[in-house]
Amino acid sequence: MKRIYLFIVLFMGVIPLFAQSGGKQQYTINARAQYEFGTVIGAGIYNEGDTCVLIATANEGHEFAFWYENMNNPYPSYEPTYVFVVTEDRDILAVFTTLEYNIEVTVSPTGYGSVTGAKKYKYGETCSLMARFYEGYDFEKWTENGVTVSTNPVYQFTVTCDRNIKAHFFKRSYDITASVDPVEAGIVEGGGTFTYGESCVLKTFPHSGYDFIGWKKNNNTLVSTDAIYVFDVAQSANYVAGYEPKTYTVFVNANPSNGGFVSGSGSYQYNQECSVTATAAEGFQFVGWTENGDTISTDNSYNFIVQGNSNLVANFIPNIGVEEQQNSRLVVYPNPVTDKLTVEFEEGIGHLEIISLAGDVVYSHDVCGNKTSVSLTDWPKGIYFIKVQGKTVSTIRKFVKQ
Length: 402
Description:
Blueprint: H1 2-12, E1 26-33, E2 38-41, E3 44-47, E4 51-58, E5 62-68, E6 81-85, E7 90-98, E8 100-108, E9 113-116, E10 120-122, E11 126-133, E12 137-144, E13 147-150, E14 154-158, E15 163-171, E16 173-181, E17 186-189, E18 192-195, E19 199-206, E20 210-217, E21 221-224, E22 228-232, E23 237-245, E24 247-255, E25 260-263, E26 266-269, E27 273-280, E28 284-291, E29 294-297, E30 301-305, E31 310-318, E32 330-333, E33 340-356, E34 361-375, E35 382-389, E36 394-401
């Protein structure tokens, strides 16, 4: 009997045991969550006929979808709390889905740029918003509910909820400067700081002696030949109003034509130095340069700065009687004169003439006597010659009217 008892104990070790409680069969209920998207409670060992309550709880960003067991019973429940009577071992999976969120983006102001990356994302995904600005504009910042969330044109974040984000753009500002070349040729108006697309008006006004050529951008490209240049600003730039000196003609003549030789005629630029020279012919003496009847110099070589067309006359007179000999009896005073000129000639004055530097007789009078006076109060300033014809001799004196 003792040996038989031992055999029975060993035999029972390989036979499935019945539940210890009331002799009921025990079953294992396995339950788990998919991909750790949530948690499940209620799994364990149950007696046959017990009620099992499985509760699925979704983690943040997920929601419960259904319970899955096997092909024979794929969807035993669509409720997160699954209650059933235990009749067998079971292996059940709680299936969850990942929530999707809308990422919406608006552009302010519209038409300044565009944004990519706005769409639906699953919870936990990375959203990458990229702002692209149009020509003449720039990106400023991202805001959400009026609060700045980033100033980088590329804004990345982990999606955890619906979001409405605004991309802010602004017009770029550009500096427009204007100058004159050469600087003494004129003046400019306009320039300053402008936003993209804003109209800029540049004006230039020439100084005397210069002609406007055109506007050059960044001292390189000719963009306009109009003195008033209007354009839409698209970049910072320097505009130069280019000028060139005017060209003038200098004519030089001899008076009389056989009185001497002259040089210096030609074309000259404004503010260029011109040199004219007079050389008396044999029997003549150079007495001075005149322009429009006005005396401008008594030097044979006359240098001046050209500032307009000029017509210069080199004046010559015969040598006879011109020399102011010390023994001459003709007296002219005061010299220079401002008001009244007195003339005395010992031999007696028969006829008196006053000749301009240009050779024109500007006064003529017969005199009876050896002394006379001439009023020059209203006469132009300059060099004059007084010619006295006596009984036997003719003589000339030079005087200056101040």
